[in-house]
Design brief:
The chain has 19 helices and two strands. It is globular, with a radius of gyration of 23 Å. The chain has a two-stranded antiparallel ribbon. A hairpin with a 2-residue loop joins strand 1 (about 165) and strand 2 (about 165-170). It starts with 8 loop residues before the first helix and ends in a 6-residue tail after the last helix. Helix 6 (about 100-105) packs parallel to helix 16 (about 410-440) and helix 16 (about 410-440) packs antiparallel against helix 17. By secondary structure, it is mainly α. It has a single domain, classed as Amino acid/polyamine transporter I (Up-down Bundle).
């Protein structure tokens, strides 16, 4: 391919990888089509179930939706389904490495791919930080059950009031205690970064065990705590009065505005469903099986999430759930006679969350690796360790970014940034479907989004509508983040891109 410097600026920004090249590589793939619809459904469930339900449900209920958080899960599930259908079409058409980054590079162009790379840092990198904060909350709670206490000041973000049972903890001087640094969250991120440098590959058996543990914990919580709620419903039903708390007048605080604001928060709980789309090349019948896998897994998880939110908000008042470990708060409310069950739930949550952190950090390192091979990031990010054969430089960097973010920032800010980045990324994926239909209508597609272009267009609108429900300060930070990414593209990315230079591409 010819060098691009003499082209106009817009043409260079829209420079795309060859769809034909991608498809030729797909045709020569050695992967076997062995996955049926149920395989894909369980794959999706395994990837989706995790951090969101264990961590962010409480924040959404306590600060925004109250018991109506179950409606928020329904809204978020519908938005994810729209994006999921678009992922299904792209994955059946371009089943390649790099997922959304590569989709953008191949359809909309290099500039969109660069922005997508920045958004994926929020989706994967900061998501790992959010999960690490939740992991820390469950570890602190479990250690407390055995009389082991980490200094409270080292269990939360800098400058935030230390909370317990929904109320601020007061110091000996009569003032609220504040946290300095989330030590457990920092340590788990750095420890897992070290493991990734050495080289950790989750076997199918290990992953299946972890998925089984997560599912067992969730179902056990629903059954046991749900039965307790049924037995004491006459007393506990007061926790649902009112079901939708009256709006305070502040943006996104309760009322129907709070329900939609909470939808942008619990959206975090659905991150991972796009993993199903990466299996398009191994699906027996992508046209039939991909939508079944994506929509089926989303449906199952939405039902489980709604049941968990019902049980949780009936068991304890929603005001007590603004903590990193809301499930632990709910099971602790059962009383000391259920202490063994509370410990079991916490251990299961810790195991499940550890796996989620590892997978998210792994995903982020591979995105940086792919971008570095394309010349959009410094070549050192693609440097492979001579012994461990892993991208060790960018793995250490990802570990530091996630560790520092988890240590010093509160879970609500981190979670909002993750959701905003993910929603924006999903919006671009929906746009990519429309773009590819217009530019390459002749390409064979294993699956087509129904009701085109209505559903992809509605997916774009829905994603960006949820973005604008978040706090203004988060939107301002996100705007500055995107602006910095744009400037960095023109300063570094465009000048060093292999595609711009006409060099051979790596996929």
């Amino acid at each position: 391919m010819a060098s691009a410097p003499n082209q106009g600026l817009l043409s260079r920004m829209l420079l795309r990888k060859s769809v034909e090249q991608v498809q030729r590589e797909t045709e020569t793939s050695q992967l076997k089509r062995t996955l049926g619809p149920w395989n894909l459904v369980f794959l999706g469930i395994g990837c989706i179930i995790g951090a969101g339900i264990f961590v962010r449900t409480g924040n959404a209920a306590a600060l925004h939706a109250g018991p109506a958080v179950l409606l928020s899960f329904l809204v978020a599930g519908i938005v994810c389904a729209l994006a999921g259908l678009c992922y299904a079409e792209l994955s059946s058409t371009l089943p390649v490495s790099g997922s959304a980054y590569t989709y953008s590079y191949t359809t909309v162009g290099e500039f969109a791919a660069w922005i997508m790379g920045g958004l994926l840092l929020l989706e994967y990198g900061l998501a790992a930080s959010v999960v690490a904060v939740g992991w820390s909350g469950y570890v602190v709670s479990l250690l407390g059950d055995y009389g082991l206490v980490i200094p409270p000041e080292l269990t939360g973000p800098y400058g935030h009031a230390l909370m317990r049972d929904g109320a601020a903890v007061m110091g000996t001087d009569g003032n609220p205690m504040t946290t300095l640094f989330n030590l457990p969250a920092f340590l788990i991120c750095m420890a897992l970064a070290g493991l990734l440098v050495v080289g950790v590959s989750e076997s199918a058996k290990v992953n299946n065990v972890i998925v089984a543990i997560k599912m067992t914990v969730i179902i056990a919580f629903i059954i046991i705590v749900g039965w307790y709620v049924i037995q004491h419903f006459d007393t506990l039903k007061a926790n649902w009065d009112p079901f939708i708390p009256e709006a305070t007048g502040e943006k996104g605080e309760f009322g129907w505005g709070g329900v939609f604001r909470a939808a942008s928060i619990v959206f975090f709980a659905y991150i991972g469903f796009e993993a199903v789309s990466t299996a398009g090349q191994e699906a027996k019948n992508p046209k039939r099986d991909m939508p079944i896998g994506i929509i089926g897994s989303l449906l199952v998880c939405t039902i489980l999430y709604i049941l968990v939110s019902i049980v949780m908000t009936l068991m304890v008042n929603y005001k007590m759930l603004n903590v990193p470990d809301p499930v632990a708060v709910a099971v602790d409310a059962l009383g000391p006679q259920w202490g063994w069950f509370a410990k079991t739930i916490k251990v299961g949550a810790i195991i499940g969350l550890t796996s989620v952190i590892l997978v998210l950090m792994y995903g982020q390192t591979r995105i940086f690796y792919t971008m570095a091979r394309d010349g959009l990031l410094p070549r050192v990010f693609a440097k492979v360790h001579p012994t461990f054969k892993t991208p060790w430089v960018n793995t250490i960097l990802v570990g530091l970014i996630t560790a520092i973010a988890a240590a010093f920032f509160d879970i609500n800010t981190l979670g909002d940034m993750t959701s905003v980045g993910t929603l924006a990324a999903f919006g671009i994926v929906c746009l990519s479907v429309i773009w590819l239909r217009r530019t390459h209508p002749e390409i064979p597609r294993g699956f087509r989004v129904p009701l085109y272009p209505v559903l992809p267009a509605f997916g774009i609108v829905a994603c960006f509508a949820l973005i604008f429900t978040v706090e203004t300060r988060v939107l301002i930070f996100f705007a500055w983040y995107v602006l910095a990414a744009i400037l960095l593209y023109f300063v570094y990315g465009m000048r060093n891109s292999q595609l711009q230079k006409g060099e051979a591409q790596h996929d």
